[in-house]
Design goal:
Blueprint: H1 3-20, H2 28-41, E1 48-52, H3 55-60, H4 81-104, H5 106-133, H6 143-149, H7 151-163, H8 170-185, E2 189-191, E3 195-199, E4 204-205, E5 207-209, E6 216-218, E7 226-227, E8 233-237, E9 240-242, H9 244-248, H10 253-258, H11 262-272, H12 274-281, E10 285-290, E11 298-305, E12 308-314, E13 326-332, H13 338-345, H14 350-354
Parallel strand pairs: 1-3
Antiparallel strand pairs: 2-3, 4-7, 5-6, 7-8, 8-9, 10-11, 11-12, 12-13
Amino acid sequence: MSVFAQREAAEIRAEWLGHLLSSLPADRAAAEAAISELYRLIGADPPRFHWVASPVAALETVPPGLRLRASESVDRIADWPLVLRFRRLISELTAQLDVSVMRHQRALDKLLGQVVRAPLMASRRSTLAMALWSVRDVGWRSDSWYAALCASWSAHYDAIRRTSGVVFTPEQNCLLDLWGAAVRSCGWWWPREDVCVVSERPVEIHTEVWGDEGQVRLHRPDGPALRFADGWDVHAWHGTKVPSWVIDDEPDVERIARETNIEVRRCAIEKIGWGDYIDRAGLRLVAAAPDPGNPGSELRLYDLREQTRVLLAVNGSVERDGHRRRYGLTVPGGIDDPVAAAGWTYGLSGDQYSRLVRRT
């Protein structure tokens, strides 16, 4: 792929990422028009629409006048009749497009998958999907539908037709445009034969870039990272969902010590800062030593709790903000040497770690 094509692909990815992360009110007329036409394409009558303020509301709401069968519960959405028909429609379209693309632009297709499709998929998993899975177990099979609603696959083929010169048929362009219109106009939607439940988009979404291809994840250090108009919100620290107290409350080392979830505890400590946490918690310094894997930095080993110690180290590479982050790693309580502790985190002995080339 030429530099120009790479730049164009990155611009297309940014465009679709903007749709994925939009906090603008839904364009209800455009969404209903696109979804109604998609219903027609699978041989179904256009539905009536029931709008809700958030995906959680969609999972918890039974539209007025609808009597649900057991098979129509939201945790079995992958088996809904219309969902199966929509997924078949998409599969047939992408199979057709792949034949044309692979015949003429196999290398470009692979690179666009890496530059456009994969980053958008990762961003979906680290934002809206992560938030929804954290509040309700909808089952792993349900994600096949939510993945279909993701901008990633339609963005991929949109990038192909805009950069490759491969010509799609009018029917293929129509279907791709309809699905893209739904992505651009509203949040997720849940199709039944008589009614389609459609979610508004969030009113706030805060993210950070965490990958080399522009991937983003939920993060906000001073409030909810994701918030919908009905009050449902999600607090997140560098892509990990955390209870609101981690973000909103004053640091409390005793509360952190009581926390049983190791990831939540890690995030809470990082929010304070490992150095401040160690000082506030009064952790005993076991030993300190120069870091042979990161010249100019020091390894410090502290007692944390019974049979556990924490190694305080400095990241070998510079963060996006230009700083080198201090971080803590828990190690077995029987390790007394900071260098041996650092080696243990890599599955090495202290002597082996000492001979490593500078780590990153």
